[in-house]
Amino acid sequence: MDNRSGESSLFCRIFRQKLFGTQVFQHGMTPIKGSGCSWRVRSILYGLTIVMENIGWKPGIGSKINVWTARWVGGERPEPKNEWLNQSHGHLVNLQVRNLFQPDGSWNEVFIKGLFTDEWATRILAIPRCEVRMRDKVYWPRTTSGTYTVKSGYGLIFEEYMVKARTVKDNSRLNDRGRLFCRKVLWKLPVPQMWKILIWRIITNLLPTGHEFSKRNIDVDFLCGLCGGDQRSIETPEHLFRDCGFSSRIWAGLVLGIRVEGAGGIPISDWICDWIHYLRKERRGLAR
Questions:
Q1: At 14, phi and psi to the nearest 5?
Q2: Four-CA torsion 213, 219, 222, 223, nearest 10 degrees
Q3: Residue 201, CB half-sphere, CA atoms under 13 Å: how many?
Q4: Distances in Å between the alpha carbon of 198 and those of 194, 258, 281?
Q5: Is 43 exposed, middle or buried, given 0-12, 13-18 or 19+ CB atoms closer than 10 A?
Q6: Which of 35, 63, 121, 195 could, after both became Cys, cross-link 116 (CB 3.0–4.6 A)?
Q7: Residues 220-258: tens digit of each pLDDT
């Protein structure tokens, strides 16, 4: 089934009506957030909103794309000159790409250089001249082919989530190294999925430990239940999975060769990343 027949299928028509109503597909259109939506529809709307904000546009000569809000220059939004921003130009807020063209379809170089910085003006003027009947086209700037893939969409949503997570008041959930580790290494490890999820929750500090409960003023015993007597410590991911005497004895009994001595000051995320990288390197060495 080709793309056109797919778009006209009953499934696509129902979901298009449910998500967008009678809107014609164009830049700036937003999904309709009706009341009483199911969890599945809300999830689709969330992902669709992020995708719509990040699609790229190839403008035509009659383009109605907004110059400032659409990603039409190599999948990015162009920025105006600082002096232009500091002045009152309210009539140019809704400037459209078609206003940057000459009648013959070429770029209005003088106008463009007056609006944008030299870098952005050069990039815009490098875009090939539009054909007279060419319409605005949509493409996905996060793949080399320009075609949307589930993998690239998931990666984008994951990055959006991590950006929001880093703004959480209590702590940054994942640093740049941990984020790269999860995307490039963790989910590709040849271990059961439940192990990967546990490691991910430890690295991102998403476990219901006593320390997390205490920060949220939840009345629970926030000391480690594995420590004995007066030696009990606050239950943190570092303590629970590494520094606790009970945990250290478990690590010592394994054949992996992992040792916890002297690692007390290292964040659990860095400690786990370092050991997994080391074990993967050792495994590749044995395979040779």
A1: -65, -45
A2: 180
A3: 12
A4: 6, 18, 22
A5: exposed
A6: 121
A7: 888 888 876 566 788 888 888 888 888 888 888 887 778
Structure tokens, 50:
């992020």
In 126-266, which ranges are continuous DSSP H helix? 150-165, 176-184, 193-203, 210-215, 237-238, 245-253
H or E stretch at 139: strand 137-139
Q: Which residue bears the tokens 């609006």?
A: 115
Whole-angstrom distance, CA of residue 235 vs CA of residue 242? 11
211 is written with which tokens? 């320390």
> 3-state DSSP call for residue 288?
coil
Q: In the beta sheet, which residues pair with residue 96?
A: 66
The residue ranges of every structural domain in the chain are 171-287
- Count of all residues that appear for the chain in the document: 288
Report which of 198, 195, 194, 202 is spatially closest to residue 174, judged by C-alpha positions.
Answer: 202
> What gap in Å lies between CA 287 and CA 283, rounded to an integer?
6
Predicted local distance difference test score (pLDDT) of residue 167: 47
Q: What angle do CA 133, 58, 14 make, to 5 degrees?
A: 90
3-state secondary structure of 223: strand
Residue 86 is encoded by which pair of tokens?
């500091």
- Phi/psi at 274 (5° precision): -65, -45
- With cut-offs at 50, 70 and 90, classify the pLDDT of residue 25: low
Given phi > 0 = left and psi -120 to 50 = alpha, else beta, which region is 74?
left
Burial class (CB in 10 A: 0-12, 13-18, 19+), 104: exposed
The structure's pTM equals: 0.47
Distance CA 244, CA 228 (A): 10
The predicted structure's pLDDT at residue 3: 45
CB-based contact 161:200 (threshold 8 Å): no
